[in-house]
Structures are given as structure tokens and as C-alpha cells.
Design goal:
This protein is an alpha+beta fold. The chain has two helices and five strands, in the order βββββαα.
Length: 127
Amino acid sequence: MGPVEKEPRRLSGGRSRCPDCGLPQDRVATLDHDWVLLEPDMKPLAHTVPADHRWIELSDGRVMVYGVCPPEQFQRCRVEHRLACPAQPLPDLWPWLTTLREENARQAERHNAPEPPPPPAEWPDTG
């Protein structure tokens, strides 16, 4: 038998690539012992996100949907990557989300763009 642990081990989240657009997404545990894929490095003010799309981080690192209306003035939340994924055919839910999706589309293009050709070995004589 192995050593006895005082606290149960948790499955840790992590970062993975979206199979649709190739951009990173955070895998985070939910309060219901499930997983959700969230947009990394994005924490908008909760009042700018509809109640059923707000993911609030808890002190233990898990997240839950925060449907309280109206939320506190300076409360921050997380958004699912599928809403910001440029490869998903979603309706325009909020103007800032459309902007985020457009920026993610540009990032995906830059990420998947071929490398530029190497410079010539000898530059032409211009002088």
C-alpha cells in the first residue's frame, strides 16, 4: 500500500489547444465536479456578461456559473472558450465578444501562418 494522504488529490486543470482554432484554452474544474474550457487571460467585469455565461472563480480554484443579477460592480468573471473561439459559428452575443473573436481569428492566422522565406545569402548592390 502507498502512503496515506491527509487530503484527497485533485485532478489538476491545465492548458490545452482548441481542436477547432488551435488557440490555448484553460481546463478548470467546476463546483459540480466537472470540467469547463475557459478563455485564458480574460476576466471581464461580470455585469458585462449575461448571467448564464459568467464563470466565477472560487477560492479553491474551481469555478461556478454566477447567475446573481445584478452582480457586484467590480466582480470579475471568466468566459467559456467556445464563445470566443473564432472557428465556432455563434451569434453575436455582446459587442466586446465579437471583438474578442475577431482578435482570436487573427491570432489563429498568425499561429498557423507559414514561416517567411529566409533572407538571400547575398544582398544586391544598391550603391
